[in-house]
Amino acid sequence: MNGVAPEGWPVFSAATRLLVIAPHPDDETIATGVLVQQVRAAGGEVRIVLLTGGDNNPWPQRWLERRWRIAAADRRRWARRRGEELQHALAALGIPPSALQALDWPDLGLTEMLLHATDSAAATVLDAVSRFSPDLIALPSLQDRHPDHSAAHVLLRLALVGRPAPPALFTYLVHGRAGHGGGLPITASPAQMANKRVALRAHGSQLALSGKRLWRLAERSETYRDLRRAPPALASLPWHPPRWLRPWLQLDVVDPAGVRSWRWQDAPLRRGADGAFHLSLPAGERAAPRFARLSMQLRSPWIFDHWGWCQLETRDGSAGADVAPPDRPS
Questions:
Q1: Residue 20 pairs with which residues in a beta bridge?
Q2: Domains plus CATH for the chain?
Q3: Considering the chain, what percentage of its residues have pLDDT values greater than 70?
Q4: Which of the 8 DSSP states describes residue 264?
């Protein structure tokens, strides 16, 4: 299929270099199993950057290993198992073992890294990008409700700030649907779907308890959003949390200038005439892209975000271009 491009996509060819950012083993199959096959069929090269080993997933491990307590050694063994499954999945998709780069970051810990080790984490991601020099990156959507996925999006965007001729960014959504309409689908051939199903079966540890959900996700048409055509960044926060809940809420803001965190009642917010909350930062702080996250600071067994992340305009009215503009008098 050299020289043939799905609608809205660049032409895939032997010159195509696709980098897939996968927070966990199985994301590469569920989200991009058809895309990577099409790039490979056109003669292009694919690299998978796996952020975590998927070791912090205790319920399938408890079920399959008939144990309740999961110690550090058990988690390491589980990560090895998931790594072996991933190798089989990549083989089914036609991806050689040398195409995998595993960062071994903490599963369910990417938000913590983003907020507390921003520079080093972004530098590691930038190094992975620079080593491969992709022209196309498939990365998780900012609207994905799994915190590792949305944090991975923010880290990649920060890592690319100021980079000349940045690659095209196409986002995929695994957990959730909100805000991801109008995407670009990839149409699979019967053979590509068959290979994708073989790849998903390789992730047997994840199918044990979540098989129906994972098969449903994998059978969907792979749909991406080209960030060059994404809706503009928001002028105000999209959330209206109830007053009684606000004492337990935290607002985090991340941009190239750094990370700032407040309890909701201490955050620099103003209420607009439309009732929306606007972030009020000093006039000189115009670094873009800027991302905000609302979270509840109470322990919960539910791992998915309720509010999650959004991208905000900077004070000069930019729509979040991935460069840090110079300061200007306000």
A1: 48, 138
A2: 17-229 (3.40.50.10320), 243-312 (no CATH)
A3: 92
A4: G
Q: Hey, how many other C-beta atoms are within 10 angstroms of the C-beta on 159? A: 21
Task: Give which of 29, 20, 22, 58 is closest to 205, Cα–Cα.
Answer: 58
Answer yes or no: are the C-beta atoms of 293 and 264 closer than 8 Å: no
What is the C-alpha separation between 280 and 260, in angstroms, rounded? Answer: 12
Two tokens at 113?
């890294």
DSSP H or E run through 104:
strand 100-105
Collapsed DSSP state (helix, strand, coil) of residue 192: helix
* Whether residue 316 has pLDDT greater than 50: no
Q: In terms of pTM, does the model score above 0.85?
A: yes
Q: Give the pairing type, strands 17-22 and 136-140.
A: parallel
H or E element that contains 15: none
DSSP state of 193: H
Cβ(120)–Cβ(112) under 8 Å? no
